[in-house]
Amino acid sequence: MQRGIWITRQVRARVQWTQGVRLRRLEYVLRPLLDAGLDADTIAAELHSWMLTWRPARPAEYIRVQLAKQVSSEHTADQCEAAEGWNEEEASGALAASRPDLVRSVLDGLAAGLAAYSATQAERGLDDLGDHDAAGDIAEFLSGSTGVPA
Asked: How far is CA 23 from CA 36, 111, 138, in A?
């Protein structure tokens, strides 16, 4: 607890809009960051990153709400990733896909959409002025660079 008060005192000195808050109250609302092992520099940088152009009437409550929002959004993102079967290791590869069938379906849809668009533009006389097939080039790129069989 003494470490938390010591860090909070440094944070309060560095973040102007927190200077009116009682030290114990500020330490209490910063507890999630303190428990995560963050130091005064990192916590002050976090508070500054919120880029307040105004001074909150109740800074401690403002911090508490903002930290709760961050936790909530991280929790929601984790739930979405779990629901979608997100795998960071698979996703970090070059154009890797955890569901090749879904990727193939999207690419087929893109190819069909490009073909329909090109046909519509050709009917209107607005097709490519050159002699190469841009839609074909894009479709070839999409099918050849994903590692998903056509």
From this structure: 19, 61, 60
Rounded CA-CA distance 107/109 in Å is 5
Rounded-to-integer distance, Cα 52 and Cα 30, Å: 17
Cβ atoms of 122 and 71 within 8 Å: the answer is no
For the whole prediction, is pTM greater than 0.70?
no
Instruction: Report how far residue 55's alpha carbon sits from residue 33's, in angstroms, rounded to the nearest whole number.
Output: 21
* DSSP 8-state class, residue 1: -
**Token pair 């008060």 is at which residue?**
5
Q: Tell me, rounded to whole angstroms, the distance of Cα 92 from its chain centroid.
A: 15
What the block records as the tokens of 19 is 């200077």
Cβ burial of 18 (10 Å; 0-12, 13-18, 19+) is buried
In tens, the pLDDT along 59-93 reads 999 999 999 998 887 767 777 666 666 667 766 66
From residue 67, alpha-carbon distances to 33, 62, 74 in Å are: 9, 9, 11
